[in-house]
Specification:
The protein contains 13 helices and 4 strands. It has helices spanning 7-25, 33-59, 64-93, 102-111, 116-123, 127-138, 140-153, 157-178, 186-190, 209-217, 237-248, 255-272, 277-295, and strands at 29-30, 221-222, 310-311, 324-325.
Length: 334
């Protein structure tokens, strides 16, 4: 039986958790058990549901619905564990005393002739537009999760696995690179004393600043899972993740809607994520590197092929062998 999305992904999560544990062992942070308990209860419930669906599948002679539900549950378990482990790791690596590099990132934007303040002014000039782009930015994680569930519902197990692995790899790369480029973000750098537009409770792109300050100054820091924030400015993970999600739909009928959704999120990222333009370019580079790395692996090499032998979409279901068939191209996701 092979745990979804694969051994290499689970090993990467284990290695990341081990690295984070150094933060706790050295006294840099404390994670009370009551903070972990709700997550453990949820994971336990999902594990029970997974076992029940496995039993039902065996008794029904391999029900397709149960098969897809098993994949969705196993994948969601990985997503919950992986996202929390990575969020804690992000906080741990940002606890360093490295100076902020906002001035250098702003210089890079100036070199690219990007006027961040003019961009911000245009984005927040209309309340309706501001609300729409803010919604797109805040819905990023839900969009990624919905895409995974959509692949599961359509039985496209190989794509669902590819999406999860590429998404997590790009997130890990963003966190590791961001460890060496800590920054408060473009909003704090350019608009230190600005007032939030009426449509927002706080100034866009500043929601993480209080937590970032605590991570860098508090010793020890009491880690609360529900308070964890993404603290990486360069490269932008919203950009990297959006590109990954959109490209996971390549050669399906939903690629153009997915690309449009990703484009709206990326356009919103400089303002609502407090990012510089160079952060977006870095996020694109991370996404491309992650996608090309995974697409070159034998298990995914023919996933996006236009012709020839293509992997069976059931190939990565836990406990099932990888099958192959001839002729079928594209995806049935609709």
């Amino acid at each position: 039986m092979h745990p979804f999305p694969g051994r290499r992904a689970w090993l990467a999560v284990a290695a990341t958790a081990t690295a984070s544990s150094i933060w706790f062992i050295t006294g840099g942070a404390v994670l009370p058990f009551e903070e972990v308990l709700p997550l453990l209860v949820l994971l336990g419930m999902l594990a029970i549901l997974y076992c029940l669906t496995s039993i039902v599948q065996l008794k029904t002679g391999g029900s397709v619905i149960m098969e897809r539900l098993r994949l969705a549950l196993f994948g969601y378990i990985f997503i919950l564990i992986g996202s929390n482990v990575l969020s804690v790791f992000n906080s741990a690596v940002m606890a360093s005393a490295l100076p902020y590099v906002d001035a250098n990132l702003a210089k890079a934007d100036a070199f690219l002739r990007f006027d961040w303040i003019s961009y911000y002014t245009a984005m927040v000039s209309d309340d309706g537009v501001s609300w729409l782009f803010g919604l797109a930015y805040d819905s990023f994680a839900y969009t990624a999760l919905f895409s995974f569930m959509l692949f599961c519902a359509g039985g496209d197990f190989t794509r669902s696995r590819f999406l999860v692995e590429a998404f997590w790899l790009s997130a890990l790369l963003c966190v590791v690179i961001g460890m060496f480029t800590p920054a408060e973000g473009a909003t704090a750098f350019h608009l230190e004393d600005a007032v939030a537009p009426e449509v927002f409770a706080t100034l866009p792109g500043t929601h993480y600043l209080d937590y970032l300050d605590r991570v860098r100054t508090a010793w020890p820091l009491t880690v609360r899972l529900q308070d964890l924030q993404g603290l990486t400015t360069f490269p932008s993970f919203h950009t990297a993740g959006s590109v990954v999600v959109a490209c996971s739909f390549w050669r399906t009928r939903l690629f153009l809607p997915a690309a449009l959704c990703a484009g709206v999120t990326i356009v919103a990222t400089p303002v609502y994520g407090g990012h510089y333009l160079v952060d977006l370019l870095g996020g694109c580079a991370v996404a491309i590197a992650s996608l090309l790395t995974l697409a070159s692996l034998p298990s995914y090499k023919r996933l996006f092929a236009a012709t020839g032998v293509r992997q069976d979409r059931r190939g990565c279901l836990p406990g099932r062998p990888v099958l192959q068939r001839r002729g079928a191209t594209g995806s049935s996701v609709s």
